[in-house]
Amino acid sequence: MLTFKRPRSTLLFLILFVVFLLSAYSCHAPLPPANRVFIVQSFSGFPSSKAEAVYEMLKKINPKTIIRKDIPLPAVAFYPQRNRYRADSLINYLDHFASTDTVIIGLTNMDISTTKGNINDWGVMGLGFQPGNACVVSTYRLSKVELPAQLYKLTLHELGHTQGLPHCKNPNCYMRDAEGGNHLNEETDFCQSCKLFLRAKGWLLK
Question: Where are the beta strands (DSSP E) in 44-117?
């Protein structure tokens, strides 16, 4: 009777391959679904006219965009040592009102910060988890002259993170890393790579 023995090297390869797949799946969060509803949520003190402007612009790339009445800034997110709010805490707060089918954009004019490397309290313009169900944007560090345009670009940047996009090395792309500065006036659009990714998520981008 003829028998066939699988080489041990082949079995070892298959075992290692399965282990690699399992570890890769456990270490990376799955990307969120496409065509999620955008929820524009301003915090108290944020001008309603600016929130409406963001809402109207976002509707052009995602018709499933809604706007809600403003809500108070959560006291738990306040950082009294610097008289500002922790962006990560604001996102965690907003996340309670979100779901896998939605992403909430928090808008505030207060100073916000997060932890960056060895710096415990790093001031930022915005923050979005990658991926995530919520992000937060602040006008505190934006140009007062170019505020409408900068606010929109910043909102798109943080929304891009929630969809799973990392920072982009293209200096003209909306997903450029701010690296502690405000380069929004140099950003002109999403680069082709980022744009293709977001189109696959259902964004109506030209």
Answer: 65-71, 78-79, 84-86, 102-108, 112-116
Per-residue pLDDT tens digits for 135-166? 999 999 999 999 999 999 999 999 999 999 99
Look at phi and psi of residue 73 and say left if phi exceeds 0, alpha if psi is from -120 to 50, else beta: beta
* Cis amide leading into 131 (omega within 30): yes
Distance, CA of 164 to CA of 162 (rounded, Å): 5
Residue 96's nearest CA partner among 124, 77, 116 is 77
> Which of helix, strand or coil describes residue 1?
coil
CA angle (15, 20, 23) in 5-degree steps:
125
Average pLDDT over residues 115-144: 96
Structure tokens at 96: 């309670």
Q: Decide if 165 contacts 197 (C-beta within 8 A).
A: yes
Rounded to 5 degrees, φ, ψ at 176 are -60, 145
State the CB neighbour count (10 A cutoff) for residue 157.
26
Q: Which residues pair with 126 in a beta bridge?
A: 137
